[in-house]
Amino acid sequence: MVHWTAEEKAAIASVFGKVDLEHDGGDALGRLLLVNPWTQRYFSSFGNLSNASAIAGNAKVQAHGKKVLGAINNAAHHLDSIKVDLHDLSSDHANRLHVDPENFRRFSEVFVIVLANKLGSSFTPSVQAAIEKFFAVVVDGLSHGYH
Ligand code: HEM
């Protein structure tokens, strides 16, 4: 099982205490779709994703980002059961949605950038390290259904 230090737990709790569950997930998903345009192929039912303002104003992107962030927030509150908790979601992404698991890592990268923009100087290197460890565990959990 992954070991979390008291400092890592405090950093993760502090960051997720400041996350905006309504909007930050949509911002991160929007950034993923712009920075890695080929990821748009998974969201062909979402309508216009042709440029930054279309993506920012796309209600389906916002709603889906909120759903994704909800799952991540849940993981942040249950650090010791992430792998088990993400089991079904992982199988779903592997077997039904056929999402290349490399995209989970890309999503975590853009999410870190959303957090850095939002939190500014409070997003210190040690907070970043704790968040990156957290995302590595989430990505691992989501990728588990693939092997
Ligand atoms: C659906 C979580 C990353 C593609 C979902 C759902 C959740 C979720 C909670 C809804 C499941 C349901 O309705 O049963 C996550 C988490 C991610 C992640 C926690 C963290 C990294 C990604 C990435 C992609 C992706 C990177 C593709 C690039 C999809 C698609 C759906 C979906 C296509 C179905 C959307 C729809 O048509 O409603 N995901 N996801 N996910 N996810 Fe993910």
UniProtKB/TrEMBL annotation:
Please give the InterPro entries that the UniProt record associates with this protein. Globin, Globin-like_sf, Globin/Proto, Hemoglobin_b, Hemoglobin_oxygen_transport
Which keywords label this protein? Heme, Iron, Metal-binding, Oxygen transport, Transport
Instruction: Report the sequence similarity comment from the record.
Output: Belongs to the globin family.
- Write down what this protein is called: Hemoglobin subunit beta-2-like
Q: Which part of the chain is the Globin domain? A: 3-147
A biological-process GO annotation: hydrogen peroxide catabolic process
Q: Which CDD domains match?
A: Hb-beta-like
Name the PANTHER family for this protein: HEMOGLOBIN FAMILY MEMBER, HEMOGLOBIN SUBUNIT BETA-2
**Which SUPFAM superfamilies does the record associate with it?**
Globin-like (SSF46458)
Task: Fetch the Pfam families from UniProt.
Answer: Globin (PF00042)
Citing just one GO molecular function, the answer is: heme binding
**Gene3D superfamilies tied to this protein:** Globins
GO CC terms on record?
blood microparticle; haptoglobin-hemoglobin complex; hemoglobin complex
